Amino acid sequence: MKRIYKFSPIIIAAALLCSCGQTSAQPAAATAAPAQTTAAQVTEAAPETTSAEPAPLTAVPEGAQYSDFHSGMPAGFEASDGWTNGSMFNVTWRKSNVTLDGGDMQLIIDKDASPKGGIPYSGGEFRSKDFYGYGLYEVSMKAIKNDGVVSSFFTYTGPSDNNPWDEIDVEILGKDTTQVQFNYFVNGKGGHEFMYDLGFDASEDFHTYAFDWREDSITWLVDGEEVHKVEKEPSKLPSTPSKIMMNAWCGTGVDGWLNAFNDTNLPLTAEYRWLMFTPAG
Predict the structure, then answer these.
(1) Residue 157 domain flag
(2) Residue 39: is its pLDDT beyond 80?
(3) Which helix (H) or strand (E) holds 269?
(4) Which member of 53, 125, 138, 171 is catalytic?
(5) Is 171 one of the catalytic residues?
(6) Which of 82, 155, 160, 249 lies most in the core, judged by the most C-beta atoms within 10 Å?
């Protein structure tokens, strides 16, 4: 069954193209480029750069919603501010930890100037105000290399939205930035982690990370190449329209997963260059 969502645009570039926390009207049917067409595949010739792909993009698939962070805060997005997720998150989200200075967006982990609830650190989280459904989600990012931290890109909705907890993750663990972890949750049930060896250090340069979310599959891509796919009946995959999110945080009580947090190099910064969503056709 084809799902149709009401769409709320980000920034429409080129012909009007352009958490898990308290986390939208749903995306409307739109004419979109095939979901397998990634940002890395549609870029035109650009000046030489040390990045794996140029930024900002010089071409965007028809129907896609593209946000270039060099243009400032995208419409329809916001920085989380003043709360914590608790549990393994050892940060309070602070708006001041999300910066756009005319270049890339920075999500910052630092000591919290006004700690509360025994949480000593602050983190940066960026999220959409609206909810999005099936389609291709892409981001250009450079992760943090540091024990005990996560740099992420994901979709999420949950009880704070009066929804079941559905989530699709791209997470780079600072303890080993030559790998990326993919995961998903269906009504709060995760345990689908998959580690992929990147063949490069994600903290040294910008790369494109993406997932193509369909009713019966999720396909993860790195720099435009498919690297992992899950195919299941729809009831066993996320189905609830979700917020687009990214965050940078340090953990507590999860040393076996992240290693103990090393806070000797604060502040720590994950960088994001652009974001794009292409609805499923």
Answers:
(1) yes
(2) no
(3) strand 268-279
(4) 171
(5) yes
(6) 249
Tell me the two tokens of residue 92. 């309070």
Q: Which pLDDT score, from 0 to 100, does residue 207 have?
A: 98
pTM above 0.90, yes or no: no
Instruction: Name the residue type at position 175.
Output: K
Sign of the dihedral through C-alpha 265, 171, 73, 81: negative
Residue 47: what pLDDT?
Answer: 37
Q: Are 245 and 127 in contact (CB under 8 A)?
A: yes
The two tokens of residue 248 are 């940078």
Query: What is the total count of domains within the chain?
Result: 1
Contacts for 265 with CB less than 8 Å, ≥ 6 apart: 146
Q: Is 233 among the catalytic positions?
A: no
pLDDT digits (tens, 9 = 90+) for 57-74: 667 888 999 999 998 999
Whether residue 24 contacts residue 158, with contact meaning beta carbons closer than 8 Å, is answered with: no
Instruction: Compute the 3-state secondary structure of the chain and give helix, strand, coil in percent, each to the nearest 5.
Output: 5, 45, 50
Q: 274: which 2 tokens? A: 């652009």
- Expressed as residue numbers, the domain containing 174 is 39-279
pLDDT in tens, 242-280: 999 999 999 999 999 999 999 999 999 999 999 999 999
Amino acid at 214: R
* 13 close to 274: Cβ distance less than 8 angstroms: no
Which residue type sits at 124? G
Please, what is the end-to-end C-alpha distance for the chain in angstroms? Answer: 13
φ, ψ for residue 152, nearest 5 deg: -135, 165
* Bridge partners for 201 per DSSP: none
CB-CB contact of 151 with 174 (8 Å): yes
Given 53, 125, 138, 167, the catalytic residue = 167
Structure tokens given for 119: 């949480």
In a domain, 13, yes or no: no
Task: Give the Cβ contact number of residue 211 at 10 Å.
Answer: 24
